[in-house]
Amino acid sequence: MFMLDWLTHLAEGFIGIFNAGGKTFVGFVTGILPTLIVLLTAVYTIIALVGEHRVQGLARFFSKNVITRYTLLPLLAMFFLTNPMAYTFGVFLEEKHKPAFYDSAVSLCHPITGLFPHCNPGELFVWLGVAAGITKLAESGAAPFSIPKLALFYLIVGLFVNLLKGILTEALTRMLAHRENVKL
């Protein structure tokens, strides 16, 4: 009898995992998926209205300055092309800047998700977890937090960190190229 109870409990737990996954999936279908679809449609509409050549021209303009190259260019790339296509904006850069741009673009995947979830929906669970924790804190009265304000600060800090990482990666790329006698 003990073995039968144990097997029954194991089977209920096994199917319970899939039931919980199904509930989460339904939550996404009725919650975030419509938002992501509308955001993607809006972004592609903006690109079509503005013109792809103008978006590319703006990317070329941002690639000329070290500050905009590692802040605004990854932001523009991630917003318009989303992850993983955003990395293709590296085509507008000289070879010596490509590793640092990639580092900056990859690092922006999480900070941008709070304000623009269409940019990196694969990592949305991280932001939703943070937002759920902050919401619980706010509801308990522990701290008055604003989720949109948190998302904005997260993006601003992310852009600042991207700038630092871009500059550092660019310097490391120069150093390694020099050491290996690679002309950049």
TrEMBL record:
InterPro entries: PTS_IID_sorb. Keywords: Membrane, Transmembrane, Transmembrane helix. The keyword Cytoplasm does not apply. GO terms for cellular component: membrane. The chain crosses the membrane at residues 25-51, 72-93, 150-168. GO terms for biological process: phosphoenolpyruvate-dependent sugar phosphotransferase system. This is PTS system glucitol/sorbitol-specific EIIC component. It comes from Paraburkholderia saeva. The lineage of its organism: Bacteria, Pseudomonadati, Pseudomonadota, Betaproteobacteria, Burkholderiales. The gene is srlA.
